[in-house]
């Protein structure tokens, strides 16, 4: 497989059929669910550091603006009864579940549309329409959802079993078992990445060839195993070069946007904090459409390159089957 030809053709399809960018945005919605939950878990622990010192007058490292905000939040939270807090938590959980399902549906629609659009673009279709691609989503929707649920269940079970084993082994060996498990973790990291590459091929196989879940998994593993070198190289190029580097460049302007807010917090006055947050919010609103478009472009190119990779690697088998 010619990697350069695949990457060039993926860019040609991405740039020619810009309607795919919309499906890229939708696919990105599904990919951002985990990131949002990760950020939420980190941010939920962040207030603990200012909350404690806020009760101590003159707490070091805390500006007057942050101390005032922390005090106001504590007073607001204390006015609710335990029943109201439980009700609030229940509503929050329901909202999070709804958002998870909603973004999963959007991500699934986007992923299917990108694969089908890339296949059509590879066939030389002059133009693609949203309605045409959206109409091709339905036959694959529940199979893609089912594949994701199956893989998620397998990973949860395996992860839980490994966590239980690691905990018991570490307890029995009085902590020395954790050191012994480090080499195993170093092996599981690259192995999990390789499994992820095979799963990527399975998703493309399911959509591009209209396969069942079991057959798609088998086909994805077969293509990856028989072409391990090209798949690994493409994975490094796309995951490191496209997603990590490209995603970092897209998110990098947020650092500049945060400077006014950080400057206001550093000054400490209410006017400075409010003005800094206002400027940062306006910059965010102006950059948000640009970020969405760039994110859709990157995701479109990523999925197009993987789809073409599968088509190129599976072509020899198809030719041999036709000759037989």
What is the terminal-to-terminal distance?
Answer: 23 Å
What is the molecular shape? globular
Measured as a percent range, the helix fraction is over 70%
Radius of gyration: 24 Å
Question: What would you call the structural class?
Answer: mainly alpha
Number of separate helices: 12
Count of domain modules: 1
- Percentage beta strand: under 5%
Number of strands: 0
Please outline what is shown here.
This protein is 88% helix and 0% strand. With 324 residues, the chain is mainly alpha-helical. The chain has one domain (3-313).
Walkthrough of the structure:
By secondary structure, this protein is mostly helical. It has one domain (3-313). Helices cover 88% and strands 0% of the residues. It contains twelve helices and no strands. It has helices at residues 3-16, 19-45, 48-54, 64-78, 82-122, 130-135, 138-172, 176-208, 213-226, 228-251, 253-267, 270-323. Helix 1 packs across helix 12 (270-323). The longest helix is centred in the C-terminal third of the chain and has 54 residues, at 270-323. It is globular. The chain starts with a helix and ends with a helix. Mean pLDDT is 81; it is low at 32-59 and 317-324.
Q: What keyword list fits this structure?
A:
mainly alpha, 12 helices, globular
